[in-house]
Amino acid sequence: MNTFQTYLHIILPQAFRRVLPPLTSQAISLIKDSALVSTIAIYDLTMQGQAVISETYLTFELWFTIAAIYLMITIPLSLGVNLMEKYLRPASQ
Which residues are the signal sequence here (predicted)? Predict the structure, then answer.
C-alpha cells in the first residue's frame, strides 16, 4: 500500500470520525452567532427582523418566526451529522 492509499483508506477515515462532532458544533455556532454579529452591523436575519418590527410592531410574532428559521437551519444540520456519524462508526461499536 503506497502513501496515498494509506492516507485515503486508513488515516483520513479515522481523522474524519474524530473531527466531525467538533466541526459540526462549530458550524452550528456560526449559524447561531450570526444573530450576534448583527451588533457589528452585518445585515442578516436579525437585522431584517428588527427593521420589520420597527415598521409593523409585531415583535413576538417576528422573533418566533426568526427562531423557527434558525431551528430549521440547525436541526437538519445536526440530524445530518448524526447520520454521518452512524455511517462512519466502526462496526465494533
Answer: none
